[in-house]
Amino acid sequence: MKRSALVVLVGLLASGAAMANADLAKAKNCMACHSVANKVVGPAFKDVAAKYAGQKDAEDKLTQKVLKGGSGVWGPVPMPANTQVSEAEARTLVKWVLSQK
User: Fold this and answer.
1) pLDDT band at 18 (very low <50, low <70, confident <90, very high)
2) CB–CB of 82/69 below 8 Å?
3) What's the pTM value of the predicted model, to 2 decimals?
4) Intra-chain end-to-end CA distance of the chain, in Å
5) 3 state DSSP class of 45
6) Is 53 left (phi over 0), alpha (psi -120 to 50) or beta?
7) 51 pLDDT above the threshold of 70
8) Domains in the chain, ordered, with CATH?
């Protein structure tokens, strides 16, 4: 396979994974309170990514926050527990959120 074809294939696979995670965020109702670029009820995912950039425990911490909910980090409105989200789905969502720019 030529190098350029390989680069295109890798790009398509990566964008497909990113789109799949956006679809998961929609399916799990994350987008009711969040968006990628702008604050809605909760913070924008790009702002979450910026806040936790470089923190080694960010993925574990945020996975638990998705599952159990939390309050006080982004203001007075609490994030409820997300009982419809499995731990594996939460980790997938958090990895996607942390990849936002």
Assistant:
1) low
2) yes
3) 0.80
4) 31
5) helix
6) beta
7) yes
8) 3-98 (1.10.760.10)
